[in-house]
Design brief:
- By secondary structure, this protein is α/β, with parallel strands linked by helices.
- The protein has four domains: about 170 residues, Molybdenum Cofactor Biosythetic Enzyme, Chain A; about 50 residues, Molybdopterin biosynthesis moea protein, domain 2, CATH 3.90.105.10; about 80 residues, Molybdopterin biosynthesis moeA protein, domain 3 (Beta Complex); about 70 residues, Beta Barrel (Beta-clip), CATH 2.40.340.
- The chain contains eight helices and 26 strands.
- The strands form seven sheets. It has a six-stranded mixed sheet with strand order 7-4-6-5-9-8, with no helix packed on it. A six-stranded mixed sheet has the order 16-13-17-21-20-18, with helices on both faces. A five-stranded mixed beta barrel has the order 22-24-23-25-26.
- Helix 3 packs across helix 8 and helix 5 packs parallel to helix 8.
- The longest helix has 19 residues.
- The N terminus is likely disordered.
- The protein binds adenosine monophosphate (AMP) and magnesium ion (MG).
- The site of magnesium ion (MG) has 4 residues, from loops.
């Protein structure tokens, strides 16, 4: 049996039931329905950047650079040939040249190119003293110890990559906030920068609440459902490079749940709960967050569909997101609020998913809240982005997410949106080919 929830909070009609309480105004303000942008601004004000740490390049993939990376040296570090051929002095008009050496990549021979002489040179090898151009081997003809050049007009600098032509010593190569992908990591290695300074990974826990929940793999009893949120949220956190410190079911007794939450808030940067924030008497998370004097609830009602009862609170340095239990609601609110929060904590310059305008391919019902509909955005024959939703949009219907690449942002309106109208799409992946 669940314990009754003792909370000052009573949903029925907050403004009526609490109109005489001293903090009625504060509660009314807390329960004011907020547009998602306003909620986002509230969250943003609470975000602190995570401290930097150094990691070896082999461990740095998808981490966020925490300090500007300035080139400590020129690249390339010497003038190099970009072709296999012959290193020459461009103004030399000798009919043929004597080959005085062979310059391979990886070392430097002691040879000087002057009029009438040349050095055989390989791609990536340093250009010998005196030479200022490389003639590709295809434009030459070798006879015994000399070479004839069949190229009329050899330009100074031809086929030579000068010192620092890719990157100059002192150049700002990668600004702080860059997410380190393959090219960025390669460039750091190129310039001899290892380890790199990145922000610490956010420490995040995921707690599923609700005593109807059963572990996948366990048999379902009457009225029970499987815990899916914990797994989908964990996957979403992994994609953002978080350190998941705990992911599991939380105790469903109030005291134990509160103690458990406090343990997490003491060590994690972000605590995510799912379930228990709606209007029910057994919505423990909402009650615990509200009643604890040291936990500051910033908002808990949004003009958002799905995701209306999202609770956002802070306690010390920890941010607490009380997500609604419906699987689609929890993933949508993760996308809209938590992902950008994590990215800002890591100091990433790329925070938000792109939201290009898209043309609706069919009529879409509007709601009285901003609605995020799971959808498919593709490029049509004329190169325009067009969008369809994934059918029924109930927030319990996780299947409505499968095969989609966007959340279509449908602003509130009394009349439906007609095919051909333009809305924004929050792109979760690249558009499909038309
Ligand atoms: P709640 O937000 O607790 O009112 O839950 C809303 C709906 O989401 C209910 O149908 C719950 O059974 C369901 N639900 C809650 N938690 C989870 C979970 N971790 N995985 C899947 N469904 C859940
Ligand atoms: Mg519940």
């Amino acid at each position: 049996m669940e314990q009754p929830v003792t909370s000052q909070y009573h949903e029925a009609n907050v403004s009526d039931t609490l109109s005489n309480a001293p903090d009625a105004d504060a509660i009314r303000e807390l329960d004011r329905m907020r547009p998602p942008d306003e909620a986002r601004a509230i969250i943003d004000r609470t975000i602190r950047k995570l401290p930097p740490e150094t990691v070896r390049l082999d461990e740095a993939a998808w981490r966020v650079l925490a300090a500007d990376l300035v080139a400590p040296e020129d690249h390339p570090p010497f003038a190099a040939s970009t072709m296999d051929g012959y290193a020459v002095f461009a103004d030399d008009s000798s009919p043929w040249r004597e080959v005085i050496g062979e310059q391979n990549a990886g070392h430097v021979i002691d040879a000087e190119v002057t009029d009438g002489y040349t050095v055989r040179i390989m791609t990536g090898a340093p250009v010998p003293r005196g030479a200022n151009a490389v003639v590709p081997v295809e434009a030459t003809e070798l006879a015994e110890d000399h070479v004839v050049i069949h190229q009329e007009d050899v330009q100074p600098g031809a086929n030579i990559r000068p010192i620092g032509s890719d990157v100059r010593k002192g150049d700002l190569v990668l600004p702080a906030g860059t997410i380190l992908g393959p090219a960025e990591i390669g460039l750091a290695a190129n310039l001899g920068v290892n380890p790199v300074t990145v922000s610490r990974r956010p420490r995040v826990s995921v707690l599923s609440t609700g005593d109807e929940l059963v572990e996948p793999g366990e048999p379902l009893g009457p009225g029970q459902i499987r815990d899916s949120n914990r797994f989908s949220l964990r996957a979403a956190l992994q994609a953002e490079g978080c350190e998941i410190t705990y992911a599991g079911q939380a105790p469903d007794k109030r005291d134990e749940l509160e103690a458990f939450l406090r343990k997490r808030m003491a060590v994690d940067d972000v605590v995510i709960t799912s379930g228990g924030v709606s209007m029910g008497d057994l919505d423990l998370v909402k009650a615990i967050l509200f009643d604890a004097p040291d936990i500051n609830v910033h908002f808990r009602r949004l003009y958002l569909k799905p995701g209306k009862p999202l609770n956002f609170a802070t306690c010390g340095n920890a941010l607490i997101f009380g997500l609604p239990g419906n699987p689609v609601s929890s993933l949508v609110t993760f996308e809209v609020f938590i992902r950008p929060t994590l990215r800002q904590m890591m100091g990433a310059s790329d925070i938000d998913r792109p939201r290009p305008p898209v043309i609706l391919e069919h009529d879409v019902q509007a709601s009285d809240r901003i609605e995020y509909q799971r959808g498919m955005v593709s490029v049509d024959g004329e190169g325009r982005l067009v969008a369809r939703n994934s059918g029924r949009q109930q927030s319990s219907r996780l299947a409505s997410f499968v095969g989609t690449n966007a959340l279509l942002v449908i602003p509130p309106r009394e009349t439906p949106y007609a095919a051909g109208e333009t809305v924004r799409a929050m792109m979760l992946a690249a558009p499909f080919a038309g």
